[in-house]
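Chain A, query sequence.
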Amino acid sequence: MIVDNALIVMSNTSIYKLNLVTGDILATGQMVAAPDWGYTPPTYAEGMIFAPLQNGTIQAFNAKTLESVWVYRDNLKGQSLSPIAYSDGYIYTGFWNSETGNANFVCLSVTDEDPSQPNEAKIASWKHTQPGGFYWAGAVVIGDAVIVGTDDGQSGDSDPAKVYSFNKYTGEMISELDVIGDQRSSIAYDKASGKIYFTTKCGYLYSASVNAKTGVLSNLKGVKQVNDENRNVMTTSTPVVYDGKVYLGIGQYFQKGWVLVADAESLEKLFTVSLKGYPQCSMLLTTAYEDTGYLYLYSTYNYLPGGISMIKIKTDATTAADAELIELYDAEGFSQYCITSIICGPDGTLYYKNDSANILAVGMPKVAKVINLINAIGTVTLDSGSAINKARNAYDSLTEAQKKEVTNYSVLTTAEMQYELLVAKFNAKTELENYKNADDYREAQKIELANAITAGKEAIDAAADIAGVDSALAAAKAAIDEIKTDAQLTEEEKEDIVAAKKEAKEALDNYKDLKDYREAEKAGLAAAIASGKSAIDAAADIAGVNSALATAKAAIDEIKTNAQLIAEEIESSEDETVTIELEDFTGLSKDALEAIKGSDRKVTFVKKENERVLYSWTFDGSKIDNIIGDIDLSISFTTNNKEAIDELVGDRNSIYLSFTYKGELPAPAFIKVYVGDKYEDGEKLYLYYFNEKTKKSEEIATGLEVKDGYISFTLTHMSDYFLTKTKIAQITDEKDKPKDADVIPEDKSKKVKSKDVGVGTGDTFPLAIWLIIFSISLIGVAYILIRKRRTI
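Chain A, predicted structure.
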């Protein structure tokens, strides 16, 4: 047994700790008894060594100092031939007295209850007494169960024996199996299949299922094995189970033996490899070179010379042709029979003992060993790390002189660089695979992510050195970082949808001009816009925003504009002149003008107040020509120029006509204005244009007669005008005149041009008429004065 890089051996009543390399004694401990035969090794656990000794004795030692801790002496005594098993603070082992005698299987706590007493008497936690006892019967602990086999209790070797499953804490029996022959091997457990494997002395290989939770045994299967001559054999070898195969030793006492390879499921023999003698040991199997396609088995045999046989077996071997026997060590100088198993040191040195009473350490000369270890590396793969490390550690342990003898050292350094690069590539690709979680991406981006990872791996594989690997990994990560996650896209979409909603609502606000609608329709328009905005706000995505906007626009398009209503009113009226009341609108859009123009009919727009017509506009559709833009038909009877106009007129009784629309009209407009609250029917009025720049007036028309309280005239240009009975001296600066405007009294036969009226004297009446008017005025003044005197 190897503990703390030292070999632990027992001889007579001493326990030794030996240097692995030199065999020098490092420490010695005193045992209370000698071991039986010396082929059952001690067990190590929890810093202690447990030695199986004569007369049913187990002694515990401190593993560092080899000082005694406690001693157990069984009441039935017996030979301590069975290996000691450890689990959760307890050890388990059995004793043997004779083929038929009773012996105990015991559970011992490893705790040192009294550290002051080195030979403190240990008491068993529980024990089981069995006829025939326990011979080379190593137990196995699975979960809360400890499983062990027994001898058959008879003098022969083919009578029924038992395999028990006990509760490891209480010793209560959980399950038992009947097997044929003395069970004289340790129990092997294959966790992958959930089965135990063992042999019996009369040549059976057994397997059974174990419930790892309950410890119940079931599905017992046993196959009696034969040699390559189909003869019965014996076996006390503990099976080695690996990769679907079972490896064990078979043979007869002091005769030829074989390594048998069986199928782990059927237990049927696949093939055997002949050895010099009967191998009663447990096989030592190494998988260190499995990547080369081979497994290596190491076995002793109970015959002369008592050396070591190595069997090189293909990993997929099915026949003896797939195996090669190599006599690794012939025990020259130490020839003797051998039952013990082989253990392996950290550097690959094999340790065992035979009946020559010597501990043998078997290894290669250091330089040759290093060369072989380097050659064993072979083609460098990701699985080559162990082989490379072994070769490196072996090389580093050499002296400088020995290192110079290693002829293939460059192979090692090249392999190390290749392996380092392979590991770097593997780690980089693994890191790339784990860099992002595909579940964080949408389906389209998952494809991008997979492609980026694939491209990154290809770049990593193509890298010639570790720097190239690092660069390829960084570039791949950068490419992956450009792929947006679902969360990022959702956030962007939130921003996009917020912007889209804002844009859509602005588009809705600007979709129509309120002035193109009448008041009732404006309410419908506002409601449609509000409803559209609500739908836009409720949209979950941009498609929903666009749909809501389109729906809202469609709803708005159903609301008729003033122009559409005018067109409908013109279409539905049979009158020569269509009259439309300016209820809540005064704007006349280009579309409305186009509708009037297309009708070739007269349309009068009437503005009322308290059921009285304040003013009206009449357009003849046949005369509409150049439509420049919208027209506001509102007329204000107040003006910011009131004081200037009153000063020109000389009184405050003028009627101010401030047209909201300024400029040329697309056709002559016949204007009718109510003046009845200031002037009586039959009175004649002057129409003047007020020039805001010069603060002067221009006479536009005279002789406008008040009829039924209204004055009528036709204009082609809109600006600020006023009506008065007073004749005002005219300006003569032609550049300050408004453009020519037709002024037509209600009596359409009296058409007058403003240029004919004149802006200077401007009077078109004969001088005689002016004299008559002047005389009448004087008479009137004289009459007023006479009346005043009388009243005085």
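Residues 52 and 58 are 5 Å apart (CA to CA). The first strand starts at residue 2 and ends at 3.
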